[in-house]
Design a protein that fits this description.
Elements lengths: L1 E8 L7 H9 L8 E8 L11 E10 L12 E2 L5 E9 L2 H10 L10 H11 L9 E9 L4 E6 L8 E4 L3 E5 L2 H4 L11 H10 L13 E2 L4 E6 L2 E6 L14 H18 L7 E4 L4 H13 L6 E7 L7 H10 L3 E7 L7 H8 L8 H12 L4 E3 L4 H5 L3 H16 L2 H14 L7 H13 L3 H9 L5 H7 L2 H7 L5 H10 L5 H11 L1 H15 L4 E3 L5 H8 L14 H6 L6 H4 L10 H6 L3 H7 L13 H13 L5 H17 L2
Helix pairs in contact: 2-3, 6-7, 6-21, 10-20, 12-19, 13-14, 14-15, 15-18, 19-20
Length: 643
């Protein structure tokens, strides 16, 4: 796992090598084992060709995983005309190497990077769709004078870029680009509006107007000063396989899953796994133990003193069953001592509080291993968010059964006047249900995913100047565009597809990448192998969510390997007792940051409304922990990155 960066001066100016080095060294945590640079030869008028620095520079930070001696980057082809910097792992590199050698290419290393170098020579930009793994890649083609950057299919690895009239630059992290004082730090208010809905900034936006994120499954080509962005892969969930039996689905899934875990065990450094006690991490550990019986799996788990959020007992069951080398850590409210570090590593405002335990489980795992396998992606691939997917299915049945006019004329007004007893869960759920079935699926889903501020709350939150900057931008369009890409009549499949395009890459995978890289730990996610995802895309949703059983087909596939108490208990989620923390040990954090006279949020938001949210939370009348936390994380981010 590594960090990459680069500069292309479109006007032919020589690259500022000092700036390139500063950008690269900002990401030392992503690759503490070494650094490397490439600058092409200068060809400006008046220079002798090949003398002096040119207009293209690439930088690389290395975390050594495979071919510790030979895998240094940037890596070029035989004549140096193709140069690659790469962050990630290519799991099918040996297969690609065999194909390329049969076509005359000669390899000098055992590194997976070299398969990209020769793969580009052979297939051009077609190389990206042949890669099986996670990656952020940059390729400089000196002969054609063009740069390509690419991201893996589901967005495990990040890639930011910025372009003005004279310079194009890119990096694995936003903070590396900010080393260039020529890139303005003006906030993109569309990104801010999205953040306040979802708790993250979705691609292609970043929190700054001058910086963009390359979306997952896309590559960009910079040629003759023009940038074109293209998608090279999409997950087909348009229809289900006809006549597929449960037994056939189980057998095929077992084959794909054990293969996906097996190819992720290739490493020249110590390797282990996260073990939460949930289904996804448990099945990964079970497969690892079965595939490598000679070595106990090294596992790491996080728990809480509040037993409502603690899964350590279930993690121990799996650890004991497979004889793992197990470590545990209990997260307390004082864990917020590292909050400023977390904010710095996240790069952008990010409100998912589970980044805290993720930070600690990565820190603990790194004490023993350099690579850890995780269960990330199981919820999205196998329909694990039972409330979201089951309720979407139920709501859609009511939506289809009732005439549109009746739903709009009766249910929507009833939902509005229904008692606002938000601290009474049943009343709150019924109010949400009535609101959802009175709206189209896309709007109902948008409201369900607006964990932090709904549109009516944002209208009360924004200062007039903020509302004016946002204008008529509608953050629901981010989700709506993905709904329009998948017209599968099966509502579960449609919602899964949108989750895979948004919540998974922009929240779950951001959290895992940034917190693992904070500790120079590589994390591999076999449940997000694209062959598994493509197969499951064609499996009927009734085999993923069967009745009230989520991840049904995955559980059936692993039923003889794990206890039923682990597989079939209710979903708990990897979250912190945030509401209680904010009313207790962390109470002063809000007054010191959000409600003080020099808070940065005053520039954007109505403080009286923020104060009312906080007071209602403290009184116990409402659980406002999500919006309060979202505002706190924006405040801390602003102080760290903008002063």
């Amino acid at each position: 796992m590594c960090g990459i960066c680069g500069i292309v001066n479109l006007d032919g100016r020589p690259v500022d090598e000092a700036l390139l080095r500063k950008m690269n060294r900002t990401m030392v945590h992503r690759g503490p084992d070494g650094e490397g640079y490439y600058i092409n030869a200068g060809r400006r008028e008046g220079w002798e060709a090949g003398k002096g620095p040119g207009n293209v520079g690439l930088g690389h930070r290395r975390l050594s995983i495979i071919d510790l001696e030979g895998g240094r980057q940037p890596m070029g082809n035989e004549d140096g005309s193709v140069q690659v910097v790469f962050n990630g792992e290519i799991y099918n590199f040996l297969e690609l190497k065999a194909i390329l050698e049969s076509r005359g290419h000669r390899f000098r290393t055992r590194s997976d990077t070299e398969s990209i170098v020769h793969g580009y020579e052979e297939w051009g930009e077609g190389v990206f769709e042949r890669l099986r793994g996670m990656f952020g890649i940059a390729i400089w083609d000196e002969r054609r004078k063009r740069l390509l950057i690419a991201r893996d299919r589901v967005g495990k690895k990040p890639l930011y870029y910025s372009q003005n009239g004279k310079t194009f630059s890119f990096a694995s992290e936003l903070k590396a680009l900010l080393e260039d004082s020529g890139i303005p730090k003006d906030i993109d208010y569309r990104a801010l509006d999205c953040y306040l809905s979802y708790g993250y900034v979705p691609s292609p936006l970043s929190i700054f107007r001058a910086i963009k994120k390359l979306p997952p499954a896309h590559y960009a080509v910079l040629e003759r000063g023009e940038l074109s962005v293209k998608r090279y892969w999409d997950l087909d969930m348009s229809s289900a396989s006809e006549g597929l039996t449960e037994r056939e689905a189980v057998e095929k899934l077992q084959e794909l899953f054990f293969e996906a875990v097996g190819i992720r065990l290739i490493s020249d450094v110590p390797l282990g796994a996260f073990l939460s006690g949930g289904v996804d991490s448990s099945v990964v550990v079970a497969a690892m133990a079965e595939l490598d019986k000679g070595h106990p799996v090294k596992t790491a788990s996080i728990g809480f003193s509040d037993k409502r959020y603690d899964e350590l007992d279930y993690a121990r069951v799996v650890a004991e069953r497979y004889g793992t080398d197990h470590s545990e850590y209990v997260v307390e409210p004082r864990a917020l001592d590292v909050l400023n570090k977390i904010v710095w590593h996240l790069d952008e405002p990010f409100a998912d509080s589970s980044s805290i335990p993720t930070y600690y489980v990565c820190e603990m795992a790194r004490r023993k291993v350099t690579v850890a396998l995780s269960g990330d992606g199981g919820d999205e691939t196998f329909a694990g968010y039972v409330n979201r997917y089951y309720m979407s299915r139920l709501e859609d049945r009511f939506r289809n059964a009732l005439p549109v006019g009746l739903r709009r004329a009766l249910l929507s007004p009833v939902a509005r006047i229904y008692p606002r007893l938000d601290n009474w869960p049943r009343a709150f759920r019924l109010k949400n249900f009535l609101t959802s079935i009175s709206s189209p699926l896309e709007i109902a889903y948008y409201r369900a995913m607006s964990f932090y501020f709904l549109p009516e709350a944002k209208r009360r939150l924004y200062r007039p100047e903020t509302a004016m900057e946002i204008g008529d931008f509608d953050s629901s369009d981010i989700l709506g565009n993905h709904f329009r890409e998948n017209r599968n009549p099966d509502v579960t499949s449609r919602v899964q597809y949108v989750d895979i395009k948004t919540y998974l890459p922009e929240d779950i995978l951001v959290k895992v990448d940034r917190m693992s890289m904070a500790h120079s730990l590589e994390v591999r996610a076999p449940l997000l192998d694209h062959k598994i995802m493509e197969y499951m895309g064609g499996v009927p949703s009734t085999l993923k969510l069967k009745g009230g059983v989520s991840k049904y087909i995955l559980k059936k596939a692993m039923e003889d390997r794990l206890p039923r108490d682990v597989l079939y208990r209710g979903k708990q989620g990897f979250c912190v007792p945030l509401a209680e923390w904010l009313r207790g040990d962390l109470k002063d954090l809000i007054g010191e940051n959000l409600l003080c006279g020099d808070s940065r949020i005053r520039e954007y938001f109505q403080i009286p409304y923020v104060r009312s949210l906080w007071n209602r939370h403290l009184s116990g009348k409402q659980d406002n922990s999500a919006p309060i936390w979202g505002l706190l994380m924006f405040e801390l981010w602003h102080r760290r990155f903008l002063g």
